[in-house]
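Appendix B, example 12.
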Amino acid sequence: MVRWYLWAAISLQGAVQLYLLFSAVFPRWFYPYALEWMEGGMLNHAARIAEGNGIYVEPSVEFIDMPSNLREKYQYFTRADISRLRSAGYDAPITPLAEAVVDYVRNYLLPDARLGDESL
């Protein structure tokens, strides 16, 4: 008799979990946009809609500055403080980001090389 109640309790809990899963997933199954995966783009989409523009536009390399009212709420600038590195005696020049990206693409990405490979 106890086993039947235990089985019923576990089955009920499983049925509730399945109901919650399907009630969360099913309505989104047919929705045309993957909202949960557009985290960073949501703010940009909302701003474009508010300005009367479409959400999807031709790609461009134009830089869009962080709105001033959001600058204190999000990290929009990163720079390493290397003063401790310099005070420890490291005096080699620091490679600018643009040069580092070019070096990575030419020497590692395009030839599919990895640090530690014998050919490097």
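Residues 86 and 93 are 10 Å apart (CA to CA). The chain has a mean pLDDT of 80.
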